[in-house]
Amino acid sequence: MAGGDGAPCEEQGVKQEGPCLLDGKKVSGIVLEELRARIQQEQLTPHLHVITVGEDVGSKVYVKQKRLAAEKTGITFTQNTLPPETSLQELREAILRKNRDSGVHGVIVQLPLPEALRKHEREVLDLVDPAKDVDCFHPLNFGHLALGSPVFLPATPAGIMRLLKHYGIETVGKHCVILGKSNIVGKPLGLLLSQEDGPAATVTLCDQYTEGVWDITRQADILVVAAGKHHLVNDPAVLKQDGQVTIIDVGIHRVTTPEGKTVVQGDVNAEAVRPRCRWLTPVPGGVGPMTVACLLEQVVKAASRLSGPRAAVRQAFKEGMGSLEGLMGSSELADLLARLEPTLPPDQLQAALRPLEASEAGRVKLDDFLSWVFDGDGAGG
User: Fold this and answer.
1) Which of 170, 173, 209, 255 is the most exposed, having the fewest neighbouring CB atoms within 10 Å of its CB?
2) Are 297 and 280 in contact (CB under 8 A)?
3) Percent of the chain residues topping a pLDDT of 90
């Protein structure tokens, strides 16, 4: 990732000792302004719906941040707050109800779930319609990401990538070490950074079982710390000695100081590692605001995908087959093509037909067909 629209801090007129800060507040503001312009240009009415279960304190803070940013950007924000004793069936119904609501473009189930529902987390996340899965948790969307043709991007990894791009931090051929292998940050960020036709970084993922982890971090040009452990990186000796390391701190911890004051700190002790850093994300004000902004970016993308030609084709399917779970038989093909023809350019229509021709007896699951028609951002409207 060469170039970018940022500049070293000394070229921005910022004089300071130690590393330059990757200002997430500033860059997130740019992202939100771009979204406002896109909403107006495409005449969209994006709508994000968040489902929360229980009274998790951290979740309340995150949801409030999403709501404030959404309202500021022109995105409708609604929330369904369910009690801690909510059953799996009740949560399922709440999700499916918003899946069916054509006025909602993004659906989020806020994590963590209460203890009683936690064992069902994967099942719950899989219930969200992939077309509205702006968190990119659904296997279909994560699979697109893994194959290098993402439909949606996970918010925190997308925010990190945008920060690297904005400040012109080189990634091609660089060694990026990620501490933490979560499905929310570590794994998807590793996939994004390692795409050979894009950032093309050499990525190493580490967890609590990694042997010689600090020997590995000493090789890192870019170190991403997403382990969820307060001040895990606390010693400059675990960093490369050239003083050019970029550190991305994803952690967020509310800590009480000896004076009794509550402060927010990260997985990295910034003061301790400053001597060997070139770039560093502050906590707060680094990755956090970027996560919110890039989540809203996915909501706007979803609204765009579910509007215009895409919405027309989807409606044609619904009218022709009754439900998204239906199967298309060969006898319905002619009518289907008649509906598709006005909404898809000839080359896209021809590409969409190829899997049909190869399928047995012209039968294919509708969701698979839709993924072929709308693969990535290049198809439809």
Assistant:
1) 209
2) no
3) 72
Question: CA 311, CA 307: separation in Å to the nearest integer?
Answer: 5
Name the residue among 279, 220, 214, 199 with its Cα closest to residue 247.
279
Using CA atoms, how far apart are residues 268 and 92, in angstroms rounded to an integer? 38
What is d(CA 319, CA 70) in angstroms, rounded to the nearest whole number? 33
Our answer to whether residue 195 is catalytic in this structure is no
The Cα diameter of the chain in Å comes to: 75
Class of domain 155-285: alpha beta
Q: What is the pLDDT of residues 83-137, one digit of tens each?
A: 999 999 999 999 999 999 999 999 999 999 999 999 999 999 999 999 999 999 9
How far are the Cα atoms of 65, 77, 211 from residue 289, in angstroms, in the given order? 9, 17, 33
Domains of the chain by residue range: 27-146+294-305, 155-285, 309-372
138 SS3 class: coil
Name the active-site residue from 23, 129, 135, 267. Answer: 135
237-287, pLDDT tens digit by residue?
999 999 999 999 999 999 998 999 999 999 999 999 999 999 999 999 999
| Tokens (6 digits) for 32 | 């939100």
Amino acid, single-letter form, for residue 252: I
pTM exceeding 0.85: no
- Closest of 222, 289, 233, 220 to residue 266, by C-alpha: 233
66 catalytic residue (yes or no): yes
Q: 112 preceded by cis ω (within 30°)? A: yes
Three-state DSSP class for 77?
strand
Catalytic choice (23, 66, 165, 221):
66
CATH number belonging to domain 27-146+294-305:
3.40.50.10860
119 flagged as catalytic: no
